[in-house]
Amino acid sequence: MAAGKDARTGAVVAGAGPARTVRPTTAAEVADVLRDTSGTVVPVGSGTKTGWAAPATSCDLLLRTTGLDRVVEHAPGDLVVVAEAGVRLDTLQRQLAGHGQMLALDPPEPGATLGGVVGANASGPRRLRYGTVRDLLIGVTVVLADGRTAKSGGKVVKNVAGYDLGKLYTGAHGGLGVVVSTTWRLHPLPPAARAVVVPVPDAAEAGRLAALVARSTLTPTAVELRWEAGRAAGTGSELVVLFESIEESVRAQSRAAVALLGGGAEADAPPSWFGARPSGGLVLRLAFEPFALPRVLAALPEASSGTASACTGVAYAAVPHTTDLAALRAAIAPYDGSAVVLEAPDDVRQGLDHWGPVADSFGLMTRVKDQFDPGRRLSPGRLIGGL
Ligand SMILES: Cc1cc2nc3c(=O)[nH]c(=O)nc-3n(C[C@H](O)[C@H](O)[C@H](O)COP(=O)(O)OP(=O)(O)OC[C@H]3O[C@@H](n4cnc5c(N)ncnc54)[C@H](O)[C@@H]3O)c2cc1C
């Protein structure tokens, strides 16, 4: 196991970078690290998103998981794969593609590890069709704060004995335990794709078109909207409806989509902006009731740019760092809206309220944190309410 200083991942910690870095290569080594050390520990995969969520208030030890890089078992007949937490998603996808299969998660960052994808609850445009981490993760092995190892789920899709801990670790940003192994249900790689791209004059029309698709019998993999800065969000934007299936189906569905939407250009692949994320200033992840898309776009400053998964109520927006976050959150609250800061310039990051108002569930979240990590040594301060 390698140990040393690591300046690259300083963003995960408030102020100075981590004191020490370790890179264990087995789950047993991860357990040894947590058992044999005291002090605070932050697990990190590729570190592509250590800037996401609030910075840790302390990090004595950065636990880099990239040494846990084995695909343990792939059972193509069962559409299941078991892989360690440090395996890169793109590496796994290449291996699965050789068998005509995929893990149906498409977060944009190319280097992301499976542990990081679970820790950050990362997904992409195709969540409309396949769901997110919690829908696809069927088993997980975790090393707890005291070095004990806990397993949940297994290698079959229907395994409902006991608590489904994978759901708890999803989005926990390493605050409840270090994920060392993951088991996923897979999907066949669709053989053909067809995209319909429609210009959209304004946010109201974007909402109307998205609702038309959502209420239709069409089964798109993704419905994405992209807008650029300089005009009200959604004005002069582009909507893409993506179909992925067998050739006959995607052709029939894209023709039906053009008829339904009153026009649109058909192509064999989505435009280059599809799945990319906005950048600059504050990058926010907005979640809201899908029908409220036009009202959420209207609440954004004119200088914003971004993309929205128009039928699932998720948008990523880059807004000026001077944006009044409290006012934006209040404006979208009636639509069950939330705005989480993903990225911020270093000089404003410390003082930001990354997560927004803490909901009624905070008491429950605190009790869960106390149960799993009573000494508050794992990723302290990363989660909502400073947990
Ligand atoms: C601007 C921006 C846009 C983004 N857009 C999207 C998007 O469109 N869709 C989407 O869903 N995601 C998006 N992401 C999130 C991003 O895709 C994920 O954060 C990334 O996939 C995580 O992979 P990683 O290996 O780099 O993890 P890291 O950055 O290393 O870690 C991510 C988190 O998980 C924790 N963690 C890492 N490994 C483990 C482990 N083994 N056990 C426990 N905890 C662990 C870390 O402590 C950290 O909190 C976006 C992020 C940003 C900043």
Give a verbal description of the structure.
- This protein is 25% helix and 26% strand.
- It has 387 residues and is α+β, with helices and mostly antiparallel strands.
- The chain has an eight-stranded antiparallel sheet. It has a five-stranded antiparallel sheet with strand order 5-6-10-8-9. A four-stranded mixed sheet has the order 1-2-4-3, with helices on one face.
- The protein is globular, with a radius of gyration of 21 Å.
- The structure holds flavin-adenine dinucleotide.
- Flavin-adenine dinucleotide (FAD) binds next to strand 3, helix 3, strand 10 and strand 19.
Strand order of the largest sheet: 15-12-14-13-17-18-16-19
What proportion strand?
25-35%
How many strand units? 19
Rg (C-alpha, Å): 21 Å
Cα distance spanning the termini? 29 Å
Task: Profile the largest sheet.
Answer: 8 strands, antiparallel
Amount of helix: 10-25%
Say which molecules are bound, naming each kind only once.
flavin-adenine dinucleotide
Provide a count of the helices: 12
Mass-distribution shape: globular
Mean pLDDT, nearest integer? 90
Which residues sit in consecutive blocks of at least 5 with pLDDT less than 50?
Answer: 1-10
* Structural class category: alpha+beta
